[in-house]
Amino acid sequence: xxxxxxxxxxxxxxxxxxxxxxxxxxxxxxxxxxxxxxxxxxxxxxxxxxxxxxxxxxxxxxxxxxxxxxxxxxxxxxxxxxxxxxxxxxxxxxxxxxxxxxxxxxxxxxxxxxxxxxxxxxxxxxxxxxxxxxxxxxxxxxxxxxxxxxxxxxxxxxxxxxxxxxxxxxx
Length: 171
Fold this sequence. Notes:
The chain contains no helices and twelve strands. It is mostly beta strands. The strands form four sheets. The chain has a four-stranded antiparallel beta sheet with strand order 6-3-8-9, with no helix packed on it. It has a four-stranded antiparallel beta sheet with strand order 5-4-7-10, with no helix packed on it. A two-stranded parallel sheet has the order 1-2. The chain starts with 19 loop residues before the first strand and ends in a 16-residue tail after the last strand.
């Protein structure tokens, strides 16, 4: 027990169970239930912090709606506007490709949000967000091709080239 007393001779029911976890409130994975630090705390690098701006047209919060960003490797951050018309907070998004899902509550049509430097003002929905080039985009990467895609990062073999034929019609 967290409050074990070796001198006690009678169990009075006051034992508090040990709950391991991160006890630093400034850490990304702070566990408010933990009473014993297990040195698992994780911190966000300054370059991975982005301002999430949340807005509600009615001014009563997102009515149960949430913002959740999940990277391809499973890292996830979730928050929401619980009341009021607007709120800005820092979110930690390390380099990666994220599926951002916003909404899921009542009145999702009242929701707007943006992520400074990553996503312009948008409504409730599902978005793909690349942080630091973390998302690969399949397409034609050959600049001489007719269907060159400047956004493509991975060539998918779809490039198409013009071919000129000379046909002698006078023979």
